[in-house]
Amino acid sequence: MKRTIILLMLSILCFAMLAACGDEKKDAAESYSISLDQTTLSMGVYEKISLTATVSNSTGEAAQQTVTWTSANPAVVEVSDGVVFAKSAGKTTVTAQLADGTKAECAVDVMYLGMIPQLSFRNVDNRALTVGLGQTYDLQMSVMYNGKDCTDADTTYTFQVADPAVISVSNDGQITALAEGTTELTVIATWRGLGGDGLTGGEDAYGLKQVLQITVVKP
């Protein structure tokens, strides 16, 4: 009786081990494919375009796999999570690759567009603004490039007031009218590696610096 029980237990153990081995072989045999929604891109310098990678298993069903993105020439384009950022004119290849080495590629051609990014104010006409004494006014800013609003989440702005006795400006662009008078407000955008406090102009950057005339009057 005892021997029968031992044999039964050994049989169950062997069966479990064989089943586990079968699962391991099945997992090991699983293969994946990856494709991109675009295989060629034409971009202007400073533009960003998102690529979408689709991963499928051997039966053609969508699968969750880690995708690693690389650029063959980061000086021409950088890529992060599928977002391609054009840095300089040239040609290169962006690759999306799985852990098993399976990959898909996109050929990227970057050119200069002959235009500059432009800091724009959606609620200021002719770079002049009148604010009532004691009132506030929120500037609505964006960076326009190649006819599109290309403001990024990490676009920032710096404000310089010629006469701080007339107005003050918060970090998010809210003007507060402090005293009657007129002053200049210089706004400098930091955008995709351009602009910032040290901006002095230049072919690619001077459009990110704008000067507004602010007049404070009695309401």
Commentary on this structure:
The chain folds into two domains: 31-111, Sandwich (Immunoglobulin-like); 118-217, Immunoglobulin-like. Strand 13 and strand 14 form a beta hairpin. The protein has one helix at residues 2-29; strands at residues 32-36, 40-44, 48-50, 53-57, 68-71, 77-80, 83-86, 90-97, 103-111, 118-121, 128-132, 136-138, 141-145, 148-149, 156-161, 167-169, 174-177, 181-191, 194-195, 209-217. It has 219 residues and is mainly β. The longest helix is centred in the first third of the chain and has 28 residues, at 2-29. The strands form six sheets. Strands 11, 15, 18, 19 and 20 form a five-stranded mixed β-sheet that branches. It has a four-stranded mixed β-sheet with strand order 2-9-8-5, with no helix packed on it. Helix content is 13%, strand content 46%.
Main beta sheet: 5 strands, mixed
Named CATH topology of the largest domain:
Immunoglobulin-like
CATH level 1 name of the largest domain: Mainly Beta
Based on Cα principal axes, name the global outline.
Answer: elongated
CATH architecture of the largest domain: Sandwich
Write down the overall mean pLDDT: 88
Strand content: over 45%
Structural class: mainly beta
- Uncertain spans: 22-27
What percent of residues adopt helix (DSSP H or I)? Answer: 10-25%
